[in-house]
Amino acid sequence: MGLTKVWLATLSDGLIRADQVVGLTAHATPALTGKPPRWLFDATIRAPAGSGSVDGWDMGILHRTLIQTPAEPVGAPEALARLLARLDGEDAAGVIAAAADGGGRTRPASIVRFAFHPFEGATGADGGT
Q1: How far apart are CA 95 and CA 116, in angstroms?
Q2: Going along 1-129, which residue ranges are E strands?
Q3: Rounded to whole angstroms, what are the CA distances from 79 to 20, 83, 111?
Q4: Bigger pLDDT: 10 vs 49
C-alpha cells in the first residue's frame, strides 16, 4: 500500500498512518461483573510490541483499536479494506474516522461506517485541486 498520506483515527491512541496497517480484525472483550462484553475493531500495525518482567521478555504484535461497538461489527474489516484500496488508487491525503450505528440487544450486529476527511488543499479523493 502506498497510503503514506492517509491516517486512521484510533479510539484513544491518536492517528496511525494507513500504510503501516497489515491487518484488520474484530474481537469481543470478556464480560466483566455488571458490564456486558464489547466488540473491538482493531488495526494490526507493522511493528513489534514487547513487554518485560523479571521472568523475561514477551514479544507480540501491536494492535490499535479504531472503534468499540456493543455488537459484532459485521463487515467492518472488508468495508475499511475497500475504502483503503480506493483511496490508494486516488493518491488521497486525509483522515479516516469510524462511527458505529446500533447493535446490542435490539440488533445482532453493529454497523460501522467509515468517513474520509481530506486535508485542506489535498489532491485526490475529493480533496480539492
Answers
A1: 6
A2: 6-9, 15-17, 21-28, 39-53, 56-69, 94-101, 111-118
A3: 18, 6, 10
A4: 10
Rounded to whole angstroms, the Cα distance separating 111 from 103 reads 7
Give me the residues paired with residue 113 across strands.
99
Greatest distance between any 2 Cα atoms in the chain: 56
pTM here? 0.81
Residue pLDDT, tens place only, 48-101: 777 777 887 777 778 999 999 999 999 999 999 999 999 999 989 999 999 998
pLDDT (tens digit, 9 = 90+) per residue, 12-52?
999 999 999 999 999 999 988 888 889 999 999 987 777 77
Q: First vs last Cα of the chain: how many Å apart?
A: 23
Cβ-in-10-Å burial (0-12, 13-18, 19+) of 73 comes to buried
Q: Which three cell numbers stand for residue 124?
A: 485526490
C-alpha 12/C-alpha 42 separation (Å) is: 12
15-17, strands of its sheet edge to edge: 15-17, 6-9, 94-101, 111-118
